[in-house]
Fold this sequence. Notes:
Chain A has 4 helices and 11 strands. By secondary structure, chain A is of the alpha+beta class. Chain A folds into 2 domains: 2-80 and 157-181, ACT domain (Alpha-Beta Plaits), CATH 3.30.70.260; 82-152, Alpha-Beta Plaits. Chain A starts with a strand and ends with a strand. The radius of gyration of chain B is 24 Å and the shape is globular. The termini of chain B are far apart.
Amino acid sequence: MRQTLIAIVENKPGVLNRVASLFRRRNFNIDSLNVGRTEDPNVSRMTIVVDSNQADARKVEANLYKLVNVIDVQDVTGQEAILRELALIKVSASPEKRGEVLSLVNIFRAEVVDVKADAMIVQLTADESRVDSLIELLRPVGILEIVRTGHVAMMRGTDPGKRYARWADEDEEEYFVNGRHYAGD
Amino acid sequence: MSEIKTGAEIMWECLVREGVKVVFGYPGGAIMPAYDAMLDFDIHHVLVRHEQGATHMADGYARATGKVGVAIATSGPGATNLVTGLATAMMDSVPIVCITGQVPITAIGGDAFQETDVTGVTMPITKHNYLVTSADEVARVVREAFHIARSGRPGPVLIDICKNAQIDKTEFIYPEKINLPGYRPPRRAPKKDLEQAAKLIAQSERPVILAGQGVLQSGAMRELREFAEKTQTPVAMTLLGLGGLPASHPLSLGMMGMHGEAYCNNAIQGSDLLLAFGMRFDDRVTGNLRTYAPRARKIHVEIDPSEVHKNVHVDAPLLGDLRTVLGDLTPIVDPMDHEEWLDKIAEWRNDTEKRDIMAWPDDGLLYASHVVRDLWESTSGNAIVTTDVGQHQMWTAQYYHMEQPFRWITSGGAGTMGFGLPSAIGAWFAHPDKQIWAIVGDGGFQMTQAELATAVQEGANVNIAILNNGYLGMVRQWQEFFFEKRYSGVKMLSPDFVKLADAYGIPARRITKREEVADAVAYANSISGPVLLEFVVEMEEAVFPMVPAGADLDDMLRRPVRRQSGD
Lengths: 185, 567
């Protein structure tokens, strides 16, 4: 089973290395790991997809908290979340095949972002399964190259994702993570 | 009012503000600006003979006091020599700060002389580490490093500081506040979780407390005792938890695990509720996880969320600082007596005391266990004791009964040979008024014996007891039990330790008879400065009882009856 976690981390040199090193030494298998800037210049956001069962996601979260630069971790698996990845797919497309490619592009609401005499590049932003489907349908045409970003994720509305490790703040009886109160599970 | 200072001056100023009075180190090119600035501060520098020794000294200092120990080294090989000590401190959650020089920022990445990617090398074996590339960062980093090292679950922090960051001048502003948004160790467990745990405690008829090093690190000795006495729950201790409850306390079961008392392991296996207080269910204490305490529910009080459910699934985790959590938990549990359960344990105890640990051979020969037992008696159990790893370590854990915390200094999780002598020197700097004994084997001692010179140079009042059996004893024991006595790579030739000590100007004696032990201990205590005693002990004694690695916890190898006294 796939687990998607969001980690909010300090935007400092070496943080990606720390996360990758942690995953390697704890023997967590990563499917994809995406890092980027956020609304706050001091923090970066990672979307981590791990191949695991439920217990392992708990482990991943708890281990990420051991890293001083990790500010917050949420599990958005099975939650109200939007998951997207971007794929660039280069197909070998002689003029007579272009029509077939274009009709698939239309059905998937993808885009053709480059055309040369012998190849074209299709761009699709969608969740993983739709990207997989388009790739399968393009395969008979002749795929030359694929690059995929892996998932980025965001919870819908203002709900946070799931958190497993809970503790009370020194002065308050409510659960408290990263300055935000939330109810326990 | 701010001043302009060099990065090196700022570093020492911040160390002094953290209360540092002694650092253990070894100079070299990339750390020379710091060594130069050190002369202007009220800091005592201990010149070690190998950087590994510096980390173990800082470690021994930290374990004896609960304060942060500091080691310092140069770049490249100086820094890589710290690796074993960092791993040791990491596994045992010991607060140390290691400072290493680094080549200037302009040379980084160019394979400069003595350049090593030290933050990369030490990332998995530090709680956190820093590469400091400019003088502006020094004050903040030192402040954060000490905070991280000693708070939450303690651990080693490394600061790799570029030469230019030591030399350059900047405005010194001491950071009063620490800003670490991602670092929030849990302190207080939620009320709902406490109530859930109290319910399990009320239902239990055969509870056992598993007390780990967290008891000492949280300073929860009194809280542990109050909880145990109120609920009449017996207390088993991990190797590093020894001293958390006095060994003579009626509820103490002594040490659990691979070489623990048989009745202690029986109690754990027969229990219906384990209360794990600041311990992490290491494989050396659980044995086979599938058959571990099969009827017991588990409550786990733990400050590190990643330890919960790691090896053993628990029914009620209590995330927080042990002292705080017990302070909240004890008032909401009802007093209990558990008479039947304690009687059952007493029965096991009476049976096993005739065997195993308390039944040592008495055939006129000198056994290592005799030495430790007699050393305990001759020092009234009051010494600070350090060890290496192996048979002598287990015998010391079994026979040197700890009545007080912070007096038992040993490498548990990492199992580091060569730890005993340098950690004893570090402990002496923490408590120069106390008796310090390094109980070491002939193997481990030779790994860091170069630190004898450090002990002499510093006048460290450290007594060294080498239990010399001519073997790497624990490996030999495993080969005897599990490899059909095919002894491979374990026979060890040693120098004449008395002559070796003499070369360093250290008074020394060789002891071959049990009658001489007490006298030798008195002799060592009468001399100020380091003393070395070599005990030539029986070569093929084994540590009993023993749970073979991966076996069920109650599947113990017991001391053969033929070796009992009077048989």
